[in-house]
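FAQ: What does a ligand-bound record look like?

Like this one, built around heme C:
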Amino acid sequence: MKHTYRAATFTFIVGGMLIIAGLFMLTNVPTVQAQDAPAPTGDDSYCLVCHGQPGQSYTLADGSSIDLSVDPTVIAQSVHGDQNESGALGCVDCHGDSAFPHNQTKPATARLLTIQSSAACTTCHEDQTADMVDSVHYRALLNGNQTAATCTDCHGAHNVQKPDEPREQTSTTCRECHQVVFAEYETSVHGEALYKGDANAPTCTDCHGVHGIQNPTNALFRNRSPELCATCHADAEMMAQYDISTNVFDSYLTDFHGSTVALFEQQDPNVATNKAVCFDCHGVHDIARADDDKSRVVRQKLLETCQSCHPGATSDFPDAWVGHFPPTIESHPLMFIVNLFYAIVIPVTIGGMLLLVATDVFRRIRTRLRGG
Ligand code: HEC
Ligand code: HEC
Ligand code: HEC
Ligand code: HEC
Ligand code: HEC
Ligand code: HEC
Ligand code: HEC
Ligand code: HEC
Ligand code: HEC
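The answer part, i.e. the structure of the complex:
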């Protein structure tokens, strides 16, 4: 059963790779077979006789030059080298037994060579490949967007290193192509913490996933985003280290924005809501400390933030929302007093009524006992 599934997944993946190949009019996509990950053979064969020579290059149809010289020590020092528990990989483990003689048609551009060569990684790393097939990057490639990421864009080819060491490397990997987002993120409270070596700060992949990255701008991602923030911001032990309140998630859920978003999420997470989620007020990649001048929720900018959805809001509008913290005598005196009033009046009223009923019952029983 498991094998049938694997075989099906693989047929799908191979199909996809071939479609890419078709789209780009490539002919020599390495064949991928439905099988368990093959063990490395370590076979460098005779490849280094030619490719071990320095200073060789080859010109593709579009005029781009490909460096043909391969330094075997680079591969030896990669994850696929001597340290690999399953044994070191040889050239043919990635390039295939039939790589030489080189009688296959060459891709026209260096970019196509890279995209096509990534198929070499799929034979052994089935799980990551299966995830990747369902990602924005892979779908973009299928749609002919050659700039989307393939295995080797994020990992390299001969020089594959541990992808999450140090931890910030995962975000650095995305910088290559997502420069605008990265620039915002780098100076955000999260990015700054990450590059200071804080292991709790979210990397790009904590919020987006790694190989199976999905479209983050749709209703589903939006409705679920408060829970994403809550994975850390409702974690009391983690937030205590920064003296940040964990009440932010609960207070959000009980306010008029959050309760509706939560309801949407439960009923049909794909239906769009126009109510505010965390990132409408705080921003996405440029989140700053709540008291930082850059923050969208700092006092002087808060009205502007509310106005993006409540266009008619005036300067006293933000006060209609008490924020994440219960009102205090200093922050919201009126609301505090009203709350306090209720906190006293309600128990006193109900308590008084109960007392009245109790004494009445007691009186009646006593009268009856005496009378009887
Ligand atoms: C006799 C010398 C020679 C040997 C042996 C050789 N190559 Fe090549 N290789 C070349 C030359 C020259 C090119 C440039 C393209 C061409 O001429 O076809 C090349 C290109 C390549 C390319 C890039 C272009 C492409 O076809 O994708 C790869 C990858 C490659 N060789 C891998 C290998 C591997 C793996 C082996 C061992 C199985 C090997 N080569 C053995 C000479 C050689
Ligand atoms: C871990 C898999 C892997 C191993 C092992 C490997 N290669 Fe490659 N090789 C690749 C990939 C992937 C590319 C495509 C890189 C690109 O263009 O982005 C590539 C590219 C090449 C190229 C073309 C140059 C270029 O920059 O595209 C040559 C030549 C080559 N390899 C030869 C070798 C030789 C010789 C060996 C053995 C000493 C070897 N490779 C081992 C995966 C591998
Ligand atoms: C012949 C099988 C084989 C091929 C082909 C292969 N790998 Fe690997 N790779 C392994 C093995 C075995 C390991 C070590 C065990 C593990 O961590 O999965 C490994 C480890 C890795 C790791 C490190 C995993 C970690 O957590 O430390 C990365 C990243 C990786 N490979 C990426 C690639 C990429 C990218 C390609 C294509 C250029 C590729 N591999 C081609 C077998 C292969
Ligand atoms: C958009 C960038 C990106 C692409 C594309 C990508 N990877 Fe990764 N990969 C990563 C990052 C980042 C990690 C580190 C793991 C983490 O952060 O959880 C990783 C981890 C891995 C690992 C280590 C085990 C694991 O899952 O953590 C392997 C093996 C691997 N990738 C192989 C592949 C293969 C094979 C492909 C192509 C089918 C691929 N990757 C495509 C970014 C990428
Ligand atoms: C080689 C370049 C490249 C790298 C590296 C890369 N991406 Fe992408 N990414 C793209 C391209 C191109 C698109 C646009 C795809 C499309 O056409 O929708 C994209 C799309 C996305 C999207 C969807 C955007 C949208 O509006 O739907 C997200 C999210 C994303 N990438 C996150 C990441 C993360 C996280 C990393 C690092 C782990 C990463 N990317 C690494 C090129 C890259
Ligand atoms: C704290 C969680 C979080 C982190 C960390 C994060 N993102 Fe995002 N990202 C989101 C959310 C939420 C959205 C959707 C925003 C929207 O709908 O406007 C998004 C949207 C995107 C988009 C598509 C829209 C756009 O602005 O282009 C891309 C691409 C993207 N992120 C890439 C990245 C990259 C690259 C990193 C790391 C440098 C990163 N993200 C870090 C939560 C995060
Ligand atoms: C992987 C954990 C993680 C995730 C996910 C996460 N955060 Fe954070 N966040 C942190 C950490 C850790 C800090 C403290 C960084 C510091 O102060 O150095 C922080 C700080 C903040 C701050 C600054 C608080 C202050 O005033 O000091 C805000 C605002 C914030 N995050 C909002 C969000 C939002 C909104 C989301 C979801 C889109 C989110 N975070 C997702 C870990 C996370
Ligand atoms: C992403 C859009 C968005 C943002 C940003 C936003 N709100 Fe709202 N808010 C809504 C929607 C939609 C409703 C529901 C309106 C309705 O049901 O008529 C709502 C309802 C309210 C209500 C309930 C009373 C009413 O008008 O229905 C208050 C009070 C409120 N918001 C205050 C705020 C404050 C204060 C801010 C800024 C800190 C803010 N909102 C930011 C979308 C937003
Ligand atoms: C309607 C706008 C709005 C929404 C929605 C919102 N916040 Fe806030 N947030 C604020 C404002 C204003 C402040 C600063 C004043 C305060 O703390 O009440 C703040 C402060 C914070 C702080 C700093 C708390 C501290 O201890 O200093 C964090 C962390 C935070 N928010 C996270 C979140 C998370 C996570 C969500 C979603 C679950 C969220 N916020 C939803 C407006 C909002």
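Follow-up question: can I read anything off the structure? Yes, for example: The radius of gyration is 31 Å.
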